[in-house]
Amino acid sequence: MKILHINTLDISGGAARAAYRLHKALLAEGIDSSMLVQIKISDDYTVIDIADNKMQKAFNRLRPIIDQIPVKFYKNRTKTLFSPAWFGFNNILKKIEDINPDIVHLHWICGGMIKIEDLCKIKKPIVWSLHDNWAFTGGCHIKWDCEKYKDKCGSCPRLGSNKENDLSRWVWNRKQKTFSKMDNLIINGLSRWIMNVSQQSSLLKDKRHINLPNPIDTNTFKPFDKEESRELWNLPKNKKLILFGAMSATSDINKGFKELSEALKMLNLKDIEFVVFGSSKPQNAPDFKFETHYVGHLYDDISLVTLYNAVDVMVVPSLQENLSNTIMESLSCGTPVVAFDVGGNSDMIEHKVNGYLAKPFDIEGLASGIEWILNNADYKSLRQNAREKVVKNFDSKIVAQKYINLYKEILNKP
């Protein structure tokens, strides 16, 4: 059984890290797995770079910029990423053909990596794991409250457009034409939420949908001594620590730093401090009236593990979330999580069992959740429940076997 995972990057970004973890989990189970990427950052020989030479590598770094050219014509567009996926002229189809996998497993394939029309030229069975909304929209990666994906898109609020036949309609039409030719496609919603949303979409409603999660290595992400962890990070041992972190943690509006900042100012707690990873201290950093530690970007799992273990609660206030790596990682380390009850968060967080789910965008509820965790008389049970949830449902060996069973089913189907 030969599986090829396709993702724009290998280890940078949430989708890349999730795809790479699945790839490594399959290798650990003896599966012939490889990964094909547009931009390779790791030195892992099982990850294949689309580029064959330095000139191609340099050009591939320009592809995300070239792909955005049609978007630039919309002067009133929002900051939400929008991908037209119009730019071809690469050798990805030849690479797939040369590798000759039994199954192609697509992940996050934007940033100019593949032209929409080229998807139907992949002749192997395809599993597509949805890491965001792009596959079933007219181009946006976060649909927010827009439901035009159930029809034909057009007049796109993300583009600031009031024209029906705009860029989003053009992308939708291209996807509709391409997907109608793809009888070899299975859609994997990584969370129950995104699977249900995709099933309601006009583009993918007729495709087979399944729900298999991302895996995590629970032998890496595991409980570690709190005092030693705080020593490693030079954090105080006599304070209760609140953690927040993500890629572009303080600048990406979807990550909820603004909402969390308001919630932190409501806290009726003493002896607390705040820790932020994924961002350096912003120029106009909020004043929370207590110490804030900005630890910057983290590039390895061991740093993440020790940081999760150093704190008392993790807060993930994202406005839209699929199957959050940070929630899964924190719970696996035995650190309870507070989040809004959106997207796939309830797949991992059981309210008042291993964390706290606040009503969507309820700032007071978010603050109450943080206080409930930090003041909990049975905090030890919260930690145990957090760890147990991940070990039972998301451990690499368990999840890898589910994917292997899916691949076998596909290959054994007449």
UniProtKB/TrEMBL annotation:
Domain Glycosyltransferase subfamily 4-like N-terminal: start-end pairs: 13-187
Top-level taxon: Bacteria
InterPro entries from the UniProt entry: Glyco_trans_1, Glyco_trans_4-like_N
Record domain Glycosyl transferase family: where: 225-388
Keywords, comma-separated and alphabetical: Transferase
Entry-linked Pfam families: Glyco_transf_4, Glycos_transf_1
Gene3D superfamilies named in the record: Glycogen Phosphorylase B
Single Gene Ontology MF annotation: glycosyltransferase activity
Name of the protein in its database record: Glycosyl transferase family 1
Organism: Thermodesulfatator autotrophicus
